[in-house]
Amino acid sequence: MRKVIPIIIALCITSVAFSQPKFEFVGDPVKDWGKVMQNEGPLKTTIKIKNTGDKLLEIFAVKPGCGCTTAPIDKKLLDPGDIATVKVDLKIEKDNGPITKGIEFTTNDPKNDRIDFLLKANVKIPIELFPKFMNMGTVDLNTEMTARIVLSNHTNKDITVTNVSITDQNLKTNIKKGFVFKAGTHNSVEGILKTGTEGVYDTKIVLTTNSKKHPLIEIPVRGMVGTTK
Fold it and tell me: What are the helix and strand counts (H, E) for the chain?
């Protein structure tokens, strides 16, 4: 009996020594929204965390990698088997192209004291101008100049031009009423300028469309009119 007691004590000590919390994400540690429109934000998701260990799990901090992300957690102390929930909002109104953001969790799990959850998306501007304005450069007086931009329709719907408005009668464009910007296409927009007024040139081509979300597409046109000699 005296030999059994030390063995039991040793087993208890070993059990206590090996008891530890275990941080695990419920599901993948990555949320990828794929292609999204810039005006569809903020993007939302829910992260669930489970303590699969046999000791209290403490989540010391939940730290988003940028100010564009909020990630409040409903509880930071998890008994074995407990689940915590994090509601994530990701702002994307200033993004364009592929993005990857992180949320860092700091815990008392000795194997996962710092662990990241990743947020991914490919953000598209619904109607994108490249470059952002039509650059005429320097135009000689009474000389015709043509400049171009690419207008991309990243939406999943065709957009039809219902009216074309240009305040300067000396500026013409190849886009006419009835022109259709097909969904997912890139289109060349031309501006043809011939003017006799010297100085800084700054106007715009305004396209009225049948789209409720994008009723007006404004294309800035800039340059300098005067002799280049």
Answer: 1, 18
pTM score of the predicted model = 0.73
- 3-state DSSP call for residue 77? strand
Q: How many CA atoms lie within 13 A of 84 on its CB side?
A: 27
Amino acid, res. 68: C
**Other CB atoms within 10 Å distance of the CB of residue 92:** 21
Residue 10: phi and psi, rounded to 5, are -65, -40
Cα within 13 Å of Cα(177), Cβ side = 5
What are the b/e assignments for 100-132, b being 16+ CB within 10 Å?
ebebebbbbbeebeebebebebebbebbbbeee
C-alpha span between 149 and 222 (Å, rounded): 12
- Give tens-digit pLDDT for 77-102: 999 999 999 999 999 999 999 999 99
Walk me through the domains of the chain, giving residue ranges and CATH numbers.
21-124 (2.60.40.10), 127-225 (2.60.40.10)
